[in-house]
Structure prediction request, 1072 residues.
Amino acid sequence: MSTFPWLLAMIVVPVVGSAVVAALPRGRDHLARQLALGTSIVVLVLAVLATVAFDTGGERFQLTTSVAWIPDFGVSFALGVDGIALVMLLLIGVLVPVVLLASWRDPMPARRSMRTYVAWLLLLEAMMVGVFVATDVFLFYVFFEAMLVPMYFLIGSFGGPRRQYAAMKFFLYSLFGGLVMLAAVIGLYVVSNSQLGEGTFAFDALRQLDIDPGVQKLLFLGFFLAFAIKAPLVPFHTWLPDSGAEAPIGSAVLLVGVLDKVGTFGFLRYCLPLFPDAARDLAPWVLVLAVVGILYAALLAMGQSDMKRLVSYTSIAHFGFIALGIFAFTTEAATGAVLYMVNHGIATGLLFLIVGMLIARGGSRQVRDYGGVAAKAPVLAGVFLIAALATLALPGTNSFVSEFMVLIGSFPTRPVFTILATVGIVLAALYILLMYQRTMHGPPRGVLLENDAPASDADPAPDADPVPGGSGAGGATAVLDAPAPAATRTLRVRDLDRRELAVVAPLVALVLVLGFYPQPLIELVTPAVEATMSDVGADPDGTTPSAGQPTADRKGND
Amino acid sequence: MGAIEAPDLSLAALTPLLFVFGAAAVGVLVEAFAPRDSRHPVQVVIALVGMVGAFVSTLLLAGTREVTAAGALAVDGAALFLQATIAGLGALSVLLFAERSLDPARSAFVASAAVPAGSARDAELATSEHVQTEIYPLASFAVAGMMLFTAANDLLVMFIALEVLSLPLYLMAGMARRRRLLSQEAAVKYFLLGAFASAFFLYGLALVYGATGSVRLSEIREAVSVSGTGGLLVLGLGLLIVGLMFKASVAPFHTWTPDVYQGAPTAVTAFMGAATKVAAFGAILRLLYVAFGTADWTWRPLVYGLAIVSMLVGAVLGLTQTDVKRMLAYSSIAHAGFLLTGVIGLGPGGTGSGLSATMFYLLAYGLTTLGAFAVVTLVREGDGEATHLSQWAGLAQRSPLTAALMTFFLLALAGIPLTSGFTGKFAVFRAAIEDGAWPLVVVAVLASAIAAFFYLRLVVLMYFSDAAPDGPTVGVAGLPTTTVLAVTAAATLVLGVVPGAVLDIAESAAVLVG
Prediction:
């Protein structure tokens, strides 16, 4: 069984599923949904089996398969995982079925079918798996760019009122970053050609190169730009709030939960091991971006009136924490960062989903259109609270473990940055709890009052568009099922139904389980993180890896 | 300078050229003598036999490396690869010309080109199903000229080939059945500017001859390495480059491109966009690598600058276009810049991968462009084609397959992985970076990102906008156009997913003799 190509299967299964679903005749939407859910569960099972087959004490890359693909360019179709990639696969495996189930009854825009939607989602899943399991830089690049196409169509065809703008912005930002990376990828190839005698893209071979510091900086910046746009770090972040707000909820979950992690994953997998000198030299600058991002995005999040945009901004702040953990160059901080990547996917995914369920009930994305929901829909409010607390990293939730590890791991090497980042925790409590309080407690407001509803439609907010194209707009009339009463009478809000409970239950469980017992994950990722840290020449005991330290036996690092 | 000798002529090596020239000559005779009713099928068959014959014979000749016809022609890997590309693209274009089910008058070409546009007779003929068939011999001559162009080992032969390929194109550009004035304007513009470019080329030729005493590429190279380069020679080379860049629609010699692409019948635009570019770059590669490969400092800065200007002009001006054909014209200008990026990658002593990369790019780009224009012929409004961008809104709802094909071609033009466009881009960028030209590649990357915007805008229109109620219809393609679409789409996919075999061929064909 150990020779079974788990990783290849995880790419092939969703591709086949996507093709089958797309080929279904018109009107078989229900069958499409079921097939897609089945496919995604198969992928989840494969991910779990791959984890079982993975030996934490073994080689750095396991479950490898490699076939020559384009020999003229020295490209192989080489797959393999380390612990970091593996936990991302598990995250993908969990999130995709959840997202499919959450999108079960999403109202589709005119002339678009659920069939197309789930077909794109499955294709996206295949690309996401590919990007994490590629061990050939060229192959990684191919998946990195190809991943854009399904997401582009998901946002553009099924998104909110400003979907065209959001889809275009998403694609162009990512494509631009990707193309700059392409130049760096080719540069890396040329260096390998001159040093090894033949050009290669194999990660393990490239890691051995001894690249001139000046060249290294350029190449590092090429990769870094792509990942900083993807992650995204301030100031390359402006596409995310638009995409996050306009994408249908399911896609938004995958966008911030997994797609953006490719950026932070890229820092760990490519920027640090391939360009250790440059990474050490430029780390302070990256940390500045990270900390500025934590604070700036938190302030912006507080200012948002649109819940989906608010959640998008919280993610930007969290990506700042992840970048801080990665570029602090200690094993503990980097392990925390990897856990953060997983936990953020779970916590923010849950928050996005529950916000989406709220929007599906009220038909508006504005915070001010809701109030006092908790009294009408206690389960929804309870799950919202769990998601909110997990997002602000309350002890006992999964995010706490990772955030804490990042902070204590970063403190020994980068005390100033760490202290500044800690302020972000306070801000996180503010923006999340304010949103929770305004929407869930207090007197009924907005859509809950019949005479006001929908209160904000007169204002120029994008949600005001009456076209049933918005991801959340369609459910409004269905759920406000009170008979026409006196003007001040409040409306009933449907609580979570069984399907919605099934959507949130696994994520709530993960929030709690990983909050109390994160050890298995930590054991899974630690060897990979340690290997990365030794590539970059960091001292695991946590002294500042200053330029020109003994482990970096090269000159010119100032 | 002794007694006159018969020139050595390797007929075998010239088979591809003979096929197409033969088809063209026979086509003219058929035009003169065959009865009108039977001309169309006969002409199509003759043109196809010529081009497919040429294509097959280039494949059979693979591996030939010789200089023949008294040193005037070089039949080598590069020539054969590009000749095969041109012949293949030519055959596909002929299929597009032969499409009879799209236009209500059963042909996209004017019934009688000599009748003044707008006259009473013209109105009468507009709906007439009678078709002229001179387009086929003209296309054969153009293809023959292009194939000769890529094999010319002598500046004079190169000039003659330039004229043989250009003159039919000028005529073909003016033969649209719909919007005839636009088409005729395009033809006149193309002719006037093309004549200028030819004059530049001829002047450059004279100067180079003055400086080196020869028009033979190999002798120019020897003269350059023996006696160095003087002002006269560099000036001459500059003028030659101007003439060639004009044909390749490299900015700033591109001004004819949008107008001609827009005005010409779309099938002809497809042919020009795909095959002319291959031919022009074939000549550029041969001139620069064979004659001036040892003195690359004479052209490198110039080509470097032209590449940057062309990429940026194409990408930036493409943003403002509202017509699909003009947009693709600017795309072709940008791609000319990317191709020049590959030309830069000559490498020290000609060891770089620039030649094979550029040849692969030409093949990939030619097929994709041909496919994109073939899709444009399908989207129709009233009697003519609907080329305004706004008319493409919501096309995906009307015809998902057409929209999907166009999207695929546009993604290939934008260079998204798993399409031929990406493989090509990767190859030329690699060649340039290997040669140390990474700043050029950074500009190219920027230009790609800008250009992606206008490709994607069309995708946005087709997929994410709602169709206007009185929008265009999508014609049902006949067998010829369907064949073209299938071949080009399959090639775009295969060259993107498993390009290994073709890259190998390009690699082994990257030989220039002479």
Remarks:
- Chain A has one domain: 6-536.
